[in-house]
Each structure stands twice: as structure tokens, then as C-alpha cells.
Amino acid sequence: MSKKIAVLVGSLRKDSYNLKVAKVFQKIAPPSLSLQIIQIGDLPLYNEDIDNNAPPASYSRFRQEIADCQGVIFVTPEYNRGLPAVIKNAIDVGSRPYGKSVWSKKPAAVVSVSQGAIGGFGANHQLRQSLVFLDMPTLQQPEAYIGNINAAFDESGNITSKSEEFLTVIINSYASWVEKLSQ
Ligand code: FNR
């Protein structure tokens, strides 16, 4: 049976390149993985007062969806050389209530996607810092800093074969990582 893997996309815009990459991953993932893009744009900014008194339905929905998955792939742009707030907020929501983090032990991968040349390196590593604390074993190689992403899709919106090849290497490496950790 395939393992359910959550995919969190750090951009909310409809024409997001990160979303396009996440959808390519869904298409090319090996049969051992079933990728589900989980909504994070509807999560109110984390506030412990709200959480303790009347947690929003979106918090409960999100936590349950992550709890039901056996791994997490983060696909994120870089904002101002750091992590977009929407991804950090999702991480914070999933980490609470205290002692009930949904992230612990789930194998992760971080893929940063940018139209720039540096490939979102800053966001990628800032995100990794939180994953260390959250006890998520994270794929280290191959590194996935995907720059110049606008050149990876043709006029019809299809991914070029060279870029698909690279994404295939990443998703297959992640599948092996998940397999290794579940032994
Ligand atoms: C950006 N962008 C950007 N790119 C980058 O490589 N490094 C950066 O630090 C930033 N900073 C930044 C800040 C803000 C507020 C925005 C809106 C954008 C550009 C960004 O990578 C580009 O817009 C991507 O296309 C965003 O990803 P999506 O929305 O296409 O998935």
C-alpha cells in the first residue's frame, strides 16, 4: 500500500510555480507514495489564546490531515531571503498544543522554488532549522534549490523534460528515504 505524504505549498497565488512543481511531484511520484496537497492558506495566524479557548475548525482539520500522513514535503518560495509566513504559520499550528505536535518523526523533504538564480537557498535552510527542532528526519541529498523556475515550463505550461528528470530524482530519493525510515 502506498504511503500518504502531505505536500505543503508556501505560495497562495493561483499561478504559483511552487504549486505547479507540487503538482508535477504528484504526477511523477512512484507508486509507493500518494501525495496530497494540504491547504494552509485558511489557517489564522497562530495565537495561543484562540487555540486554548476555541480552536478554529481549520486548525483541527489541518492537524488531522497531517497526523494521517506518513511524511511531509515542503515546496516553498523564498520571501526576502527567508521563509514565507504562510509555511511558518502552518508549522506553528501543527506544533501545538504543547506535547501534541503532529510533525514528530515524519520524514520530510524541503524543495525551494524560485524565479531567481539562487533557488530559494535562504528559505530552504531557514525551514530546515525548524525541522531539526520538530524532530523530522529530513532528506539531505540531493539538495533541491530550484532556480529559474520560469524556464522550466514551456508556453503550454508543460514542464520541460530536463526539469522533470531532476524532479524525478528528488521524488525517488525521497521515496527511498521514507522507505529506509519505515524499516
Ligand atoms: C519574492 N521573491 C523572491 N525570490 C527569491 O529568490 N528570493 C527572495 O528573497 C524573494 N523575495 C520575495 C519577497 C516577496 C514578498 C515576494 C512576493 C516575492 C520572488 C519569488 O520567488 C517569486 O515571486 C516566486 O515566483 C514566488 O513563488 P510562486 O508564487 O511562483 O510559487
From TrEMBL:
Which protein is depicted? NAD(P)H-dependent FMN reductase
Organism of origin is Gilliamella bombicola
Q: Which cofactor does it need?
A: FMN
Q: Where is the NADPH-dependent FMN reductase-like domain?
A: 4-149
GO CC annotation terms, alphabetical: cytosol
| Database matches in SUPFAM superfamilies | Flavoproteins
- Is Cell membrane one of the keywords? no
The molecular function terms in GO held by this entry are:
FMN binding; oxidoreductase activity
Which Pfam families does this UniProt record tie to the protein? FMN_red
